[in-house]
């Protein structure tokens, strides 16, 4: 079999399936494994126990999927065209900021289906082969593999950056037992820039290429199940699901292109919806409006927790206070605690005119 010719075909099929780039990496991740183990040892993963639960499977692909020789890494743009300007939403404390990746349909199923289609095309060409598709669905060092596959470099904020496409894209992998030719790993081009470190609202990027998840707003609003530490509530501003500041400020994103995937378009005007309106969603409304969305995973309770913090950081208006008071007796102790904190912020604030 001509594996070089097959690799060319895989890239072509990937493009036809909507991936903006396809690369091929090996399985050697020793340096990245050391970085991961040091990060875990420092406790910077917080409550994300799954980061260490699988041992070295994350950094040793053959342990996760026996027989793996190569990893086909893909990326897909997700920033929808025509959405509200991120900085303008962040500046308007009456609005809720939702990370751009979560505005539309959950990407996991969409990308996994495309990867399965890619595997089916390969099988149709060469016959049965060993493979397994991943999209945030298993312990995979996706950014390191994507870097080795030539899709971009890991920036100082630890997101993957492509010099021609910025960083607004998802990653997926196809572990395979095919001895495909390797692509050249991407080189880093952050230079002396520290904008992502400087802009981080909670100083979660503690050093270049080092993020303390326990301070990261994405972790606080999505991964953390309990109470948000009080010192980090004010810096959260109006960010209610994730945080994009380090990407919004990155100069490489001037090269990003809007996605052509209609499924990633905002639902329910989540690119700039009013906090008071979002806070009024009942649990049934929340479940209905987040069906097929990545947001659903946090549940209604944490949704209200996050918005309560944002309302506490909003301009002091009668509407904001009334919204908070409407949830002051909520059955959840977690919600009540954050509502009470938010009301305290307004009790000492000068009334808005």
Automatic annotation (TrEMBL):
Pfam families: Fer4_16, QueG_DUF1730. Its EC number is 1.17.99.6. It catalyses: epoxyqueuosine(34) in tRNA + AH2 = queuosine(34) in tRNA + A + H2O. [4Fe-4S] cluster 2 binds at residues 200, 216, 243, 246. Cob(II)alamin binds at residues 58, 136, 160, 171, 218, 243-244. The keyword Metal-binding applies. [4Fe-4S] cluster 1 binds at residues 190, 193, 196, 250. One of its GO terms (cellular component) is cytoplasm. Keywords: 4Fe-4S, Cobalamin, Cobalt, Cytoplasm, Iron, Iron-sulfur, Metal-binding, Oxidoreductase, Queuosine biosynthesis, tRNA processing. The active site is at 136 (proton donor). Pathway: tRNA modification; tRNA-queuosine biosynthesis. Its cofactor is [4Fe-4S] cluster; cob(II)alamin. Belongs to the QueG family. Monomer. This is Epoxyqueuosine reductase. It comes from Tahibacter aquaticus. The gene is queG.
């Amino acid at each position: 079999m001509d594996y070089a010719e097959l690799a060319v075909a895989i890239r072509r099929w990937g493009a036809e399936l909507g991936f903006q780039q396809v690369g091929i990496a090996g399985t050697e991740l020793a340096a990245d494994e050391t970085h991961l183990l040091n990060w875990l040892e420092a406790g910077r993963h917080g409550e994300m126990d799954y980061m260490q639960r699988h041992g070295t499977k994350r950094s040793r692909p053959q342990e996760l999927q026996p027989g793996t020789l190569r990893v086909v890494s893909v990326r897909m743009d997700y920033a929808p065209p025509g959405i509200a300007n991120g900085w303008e939403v962040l500046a308007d404390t009456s609005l809720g900021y939702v990370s751009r990746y979560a505005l539309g349909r959950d990407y996991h199923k969409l990308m996994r289906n495309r990867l399965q289609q890619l595997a089916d095309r390969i099988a149709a060409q060469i016959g049965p082969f060993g493979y397994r598709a991943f999209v945030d669905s298993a312990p995979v060092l996706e950014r390191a593999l994507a870097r080795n596959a030539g899709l971009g470099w890991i920036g100082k904020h630890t997101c993957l950056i492509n010099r021609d496409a910025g960083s607004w894209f998802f990653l997926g992998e196809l572990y395979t037992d095919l001895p495909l030719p390797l692509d050249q790993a991407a080189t880093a081009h952050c230079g002396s820039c520290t904008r992502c470190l400087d802009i981080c609202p909670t100083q979660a990027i503690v050093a270049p290429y080092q993020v303390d998840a326990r301070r990261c707003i994405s972790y606080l609003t999505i991964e953390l199940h309990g109470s948000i530490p009080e010192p980090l509530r004010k810096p959260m501003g109006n960010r209610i699901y994730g945080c994009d500041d380090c990407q919004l400020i990155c100069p490489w994103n001037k090269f990003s292109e809007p996605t052509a995937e209609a499924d990633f378009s905002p639902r329910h005007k989540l690119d700039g919806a009013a906090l008071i309106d979002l806070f009024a969603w009942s649990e049934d409304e929340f479940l209905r409006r987040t069906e097929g969305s990545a947001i659903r995973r946090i549940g209604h309770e944490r949704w209200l927790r996050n918005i309560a913090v944002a309302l506490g950081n909003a301009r002091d208006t009668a509407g904001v206070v009334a919204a908070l008071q409407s949830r002051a007796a909520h059955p959840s102790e977690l919600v009540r605690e954050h509502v009470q904190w938010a009301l305290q912020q307004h009790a000492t604030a000068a009334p808005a005119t």
